[in-house]
Amino acid sequence: MKPFGYTAVRDTGEAVRLASRTPDAAFVAGGTDLLNLMKDGVARPGHLIDVNGLDLAEVTETPAGLRIGGLARMRAVAGHAAVRRGWPVLAEALLASASPQVRNMASIGGNLLQRTRCGYFRDTGSPCNKRVPGSGCPAVEGWNRGHAVLGGSDACIATHPSDLAVALLALDAVVRVRGTAGERKVPIGDFYLRPGATPHVENVLRPAELITAVEVPRSATARRSRYLKLRDRATFEFAVVSVAAAVDLRGRRVRDVRLAFGGIGTTPWRSPEAEAALRGNDLTAESVARAGRALVRDAEPRHDNEFKVELVQRALAELLEELR
Amino acid sequence: MTELVGRSVARVDGRAKVTGAARYAADQPVPGALQAFFVLSTVARGEVVSIDASAALAHPGVVAVLTHRDLPRLTVPAFPYFRRFLPMQDTAVHHVGQPVAIVLATTVEQAQEGAALVAVGYRAAQPRVVIEDAREPSYLPPPFRNLPNEIRRGDAETALAGAEVRLEARYSSATRHHNPIEPHTTTAQWDGDRLTLHESAQGVLATRTVVSAAFGLPPEAVRVVAPYLGGGFGAKGPVWPHTVLTAAAARVLRRPVRLVLSRAQMYTLTGHRAEYRQHLRIGATRTGELTSIIETSTAQLSATEESVFNRSDSTVELYACPNLHVRYEGVRLDVATSSYMRSPETTSHFGLETALDELSWQLGIDPLELRRRNHAEFDQETGERLTGKHLLDCYALAADRFGWAARLPRTGATKDGDEYVGWGMATETHTFNAMPSTASVTVGVDGKALAQLATQDIGTGTYTVISQIVADALGVPITDVQAQIGDSALPPAGMSVASATIASISGSVDQAARAARAAVVDLAVADPSSALFGAAASEVETSNGHLVHVRDRQRRDTYRAVVGRAGRPVQRTATVLNKAGHSYGVVFVEARVHARLGSVRVTRVVTAHDIGRVMNRRTARGQVLGGVTWGIGHALMEHTVFDRNIGRVVNPNLSTYLVPVNADAPPVVETLFVDKPDPASTAMGARGFGETPITGVPAAIGNAIYHATGRRVRDLPITQDKLL
Fold first, then answer.
1. What's the Cα-to-Cα distance from B449 to each of A19, A229, B434, B509, B542, rounded to whole Å?
2. Residue ranges of the FAD-binding PCMH-type domain (chain A) (predicted)?
């Protein structure tokens, strides 16, 4: 493991200032992903800024909705009564993530910034454009069962692994970040970047910026929301395909709907086309099938992941059936 | 006193293990030891052309970087060392993840970072790592350890051509890795020409044989110590290069050296279950009697080793079939050498038991009935009657408990909510080996017993069963018995591989303990100070630490008093060689398949096994629970992925190499045993068992999925995408 410095900070401003003037610095909260990456030599920060002491762990219900501190632990959010009542998809996505031990440690901000599970990214012996820009992407022609069918490029087809981010995308959440220039808000739909030619740049965070909170608006769709995660074993595993659906139904009529997907895109994937196929229409097998087809219209499956095109449509149908 | 052998005796080492008091190999304090970390080849085929260690040597704490130029020339050892070459003796690279340098430092972290800083240049060629990409067609390798790779009985082709019913199918399974939770580890300490190894090994004596041969030393010069293992599953049966190289580094540096392999390194350095394909053709009568089996399997071989480890013993001898032709073929690939992995015969058995299920549907015969009709009463090779085989009892016991008679003989017939429910079954069987074993039992002046032998407890309960046997044979409480094993300096005993431990050691432990008992009784009846003085030895019973006259129960003495008065311990040894053989059983499985999503859950399992005498019901059940869980992993998820272009293992960790978690384990597993001592066994009637209870599980799951859905999947693992 590369030797690294370590500073525990007590104040958000101090955290950001220290990060801005320390080369190779990284924030660490739960450490459930970063420490593994460091042990494997995939992440090699020179200095860790421990932000666990910052006062950013609260989950509060406000008239506008939900405010989740960046340091709230996954377990705390998943078990929060208001979250379960008003934003069930959020609780379900969190409980479908990782293991109880990891959820006790891992923070909301860290969850959004976890790195892909692509085996080539996590193996320093393999080329990887995300880890070493310009070194190549073996996944495109190699083993890509777990990779994206949407949003990829020749440089990278890795998926983003967060279940939480998929749920937040279906909830129109906003990420609050703080940097040296102050605080700004980024809609979750604008937070992640597709790989294009620069897969090592995964989000819009600027150097030394820290996620301080996630805000989730209150809505009729949020109240009727669910998460379905399909994976290769019963638990403690990332999604092969996942769906977050939030609907506002009047009878069978879809007044409004949000659909987001994991496991199929290079970023947490929202499908306005699929939503449009449902919005204003009755929720029927036909309209659901239309939505599924709209979702995968531009899919570019590879050698090992073609099944995802079919599976995600079935998962969508399954979840909407449960929401009806 | 009630006999302990056969009962559900709790593990005598359980408390030490769960409290952390048990010291595993890497826990042994060795003052002054350097920590080692390997630099592994990043290419699969080619040679090392340059090694620049300057950055590593400049890293704090790094003491040395050793390469092929620095190590002594070593002798490539024979069995159980596989590969036929030792790394770091020259520049050749035969597979990804082959050691090319060793970094030694004060801490593990420094050694690991040092290894990351070593720059290695290669001349590399395009590797071929999966069977589909093989450069050359498959071939019949030479016999492996005198076992032929081609077996014929009768005239299989003619019999097949004339068969009333024929079935042909191809099955495959992916590469798998053992993944014991305790990583492989070696600590090497030289004292002149004498070497001590703290090793996580399934065979302390085998390790001694291999390592002493590599250094050209007599076996007695090497001592191997392995008191506990955190799992081995066959990975720690053979001796691998890291053990020899760690000892070589310690010799070069004249300091103790400790190496702990990382999880990822275990995917190229310690063997695997080879990628496997199987082509089966079966001929039968209309009433289901097998008339011919023709099987050709193809296994992934390495560039340097052509041994085939996944043999088809059940195809050859489980069922009565007069005509047979089995060929074990292989293809040379640029992968690390494969090896034995728990229940090697599972690999082929999946095909056989799936094919029988397919035949049962083809014929309209219940799959259990089909197996009964082909039950082998006689050894298929020698023609001798198989005495002590109770497989038909297993069928009856488990079928009854499972409720198999209620099975509907149609696919897709049962739906519960969103899931189709299916039932499947398969026969289970595995060979077990037996190795000569000597045990010593000593009764001390404190009346307590010590059993000593160079076997190992790989987590299966060896300490406990030894203690049970000694307690029963002496007639002392189990708390007065200590077992000392896992040290090559102890009396020689067999390896803990091939389901051989209990089958090999039990007889010698029992006989040594009985001899020690007899010696103590002799002391008592000859001792004027004993109340038993003058009695005939045959008139003395032993129970709960006491020696009692059978007719006059007031005349009694104790082990402690008798041996205490004698003033020195009583020690006896015994040597026993058991015979190899088979264990049998059956597994019934209920599986549920989601109608729309194809996800599979195993919800109920019932097994019955014929393993001769059950030595400890609790640890025997533990073997079944582990076997069923392994079978679920084998059937539904485990899968090592090679990148076909760069030759690397893509999922060398427990995050992406999926093994079952608790939520995948069936809520109900019922484990039944026939429990009849095998008269042919010198191990108190016990047979080897550990590998049997996996063997049928993958096929039973696949057969249940077929019953549920009508979908036949012949390629393992059966992931969700194959059932859409």
1. 64, 56, 26, 12, 14
2. 1-221
| pLDDT, position B146 | 86
Q: B717 preceded by cis ω (within 30°)? A: yes
As a whole number of angstroms, the distance between CA B42 and CA B100 comes to 10
Domains and CATH numbers, chain B: 33-125+181-231+236-269 (3.30.365.10), 276-433+580-723 (3.30.365.10), 434-576 (3.30.365.10)
Residue A10 lies in a domain: no
Residue-wise pLDDT for B582-613, tens only, equals 999 999 999 999 999 999 999 999 999 999 99
* Catalytic, out of B113, B353, B638, B691: B691
CA distance B478 to A45: 55
A120 contacts on B by Cβ (under 8 Å): 643, 650
CATH code where residue A258 lies: 3.30.390.50
Q: Would you say A208 and A179 are in contact if contact means Cβ atoms under 8 Å apart?
A: yes
Nearest beta carbon to residue A315 from set B597, B660, B721: B597
3-state helix, strand, coil in chain A (%, to 5): 30, 25, 45
Kindly determine whether residue B636 and residue A233, on different chains, have CB atoms separated by under 8 Å. yes
Residue B112 has pLDDT above 90, yes or no: yes
ipTM of the complex: 0.97
Q: Could you tell me the two tokens for B695? A: 């063997």
Instruction: Output the DSSP codes for B348-363.
Output: HHHHHHHHHHHHHHHH
A141 contacts on B by Cβ (under 8 Å): 645
Q: Which residues 6+ apart lie within 8 Å of B148 measured at CB?
A: none
Q: Which domain holds residue A273?
A: 221-323
Name the residue of chain B whose CA is nearest to A317's CA. Answer: B596
Give the total number of structural domains in chain A.
Answer: 1
Out of B113, B597, B658, closest to residue A318 by CB? B597
